[in-house]
Specification:
The protein has about 500 residues and is α/β, with parallel strands linked by helices. The chain has eleven helices and 27 strands. The chain has an eight-stranded parallel beta barrel with strand order 3-4-7-8-9-10-11-13, surrounded by six helices. A seven-stranded antiparallel sheet has the order 2-16-20-21-27-23-24, covered by helices on one side. Strands 17-1-22-26-25 form a five-stranded mixed sheet, with no helix packed on it. It is globular and about 70 Å long. The two termini are about 35 Å apart.
Length: about 500
Amino acid sequence: MACNKVKMVIDKEFRISEVDERIYGSFIEHLGRAVYDGIYCPEHPSADEYGFRSDVKEMIRELNVPIIRYPGGNFVSSFNWEDSVGPVNERPRRLELAWKSIEENKVGLNEFTKWARNAGSDVMMAVNLGTRGIADACNILEYCNHPGNTKYSDLRISHGYKEPHNIKTWCLGNEMDGPWQLGHKTMEEYGRLAEETARAMKIIDPTIELVSCGSSSLTMPTFPDWEAVTLQHTYDHVDYVSMHQYYGNGKGDSEDFLACSDDMDEFIRTVIATCDYVKAKKRGKKDIKISFDEWNVWYHSNAADNDITENHPWQVAPPMLEDIYNFEDALLVGLMLITMLKHADRVKMACLAQLVNVIAPIMTEAGGGPAWKQTIFYPFMHASAFGRGTALLPVISTPKFDTATHVGVTAVEAVSVYNEEKEEVTIFAVNRSIKDDAEMTVDVRSFEGYRILEHIVLESDDLLAANGPFNEKVAPKQTSQSSLDGGTVTSILHKASWNVIRLGK
């Protein structure tokens, strides 16, 4: 087997930006078993007094997720938030049109917000700009954030929540460019609606941050015109534009699949360029930041999901989008994290979609069974734990190769994060060659007096290996494949591997 030679330089002065911890956010939608039988299962042995699973909550704390987007997703575009508050036994059962399910509203806005805070997370709330509009967005904001002595704030107090929730991040709808979305809008329609909604919401609470809907994927026919047109309406009132992207390996081509993070990089660069075009056109002073609030691998469950929605609709919490992830999926998740860290100056929030059961790092067995960790749990956990600080610009020399649909694919992708307070630096690296190991030498002379703390690796001889309850085939391990001598780190990166190399003083 050949061994690729890779050179890299990292320097504490080559700074991209401080990493906003919200880049390690996630997402819970009222979809499938994400809420019911996922985070909420009153009959489970680990359930707390409110019916939420403590075992799942502990895994979420292990991921250290600082913000969670809620309640959708496509679900939000027909969501009547009033159905989800007040006495549970008085809440209506509703037809949920996005996923052809029944929503019982046993868990609603107040319960979720309380649960999220208990799990160590803030809430990113989405408002319905599909079937509803400005007035309802203002009403839910008043309910959540106004102290009292008004109709909706007093309604919240009557529901047992005297203190306001103070939710500070709000999404102006979801995927409004998508024909599948209830209340789908043209660019001009959404731009005007989002502008007026944002204006009204910031009158109620000027401290909130707002996310304007961007394109639902790089392949949307309206991309990037959608951003260029909608942001000309919303630029003065919003802080972020959203990005969504999922990848799959339906063709069974692993080399091409692992190159998909290059598409993600192109997507981010194009959105940044479009935002800056609008800034220039409006003679603006601020940079629009990116909220990459849906991203993941998603393709394994498509056939089963189509069968449920077409042949078995209107169930309560059916098992939908339950992708069982394999090892190569974990590698791509790691590559996507590296890509976002390389753009830490503009990507300030991101939400791994989703968190439990639905295209998720955490799974629960139906009927009160155990919770367990999917393969993708680990790269996300490592990045969240060690990727806080300042992202450093990596200068890399690496062999390249072509795949079925990608040209000039780098054999090794890497980025580093410098935690100045802890005097630690972490290198995240993926060897995406599925044939050859790599010897990576890293010039770390600017980190004088540092030593190697550990080298964690996630690897498998089987790219399709998957985890399950009581059967964890893919898990990280410590390795001695890195050494430091004379200001140079030398690491062996095995073929198809996720590597976390940590240095400290």
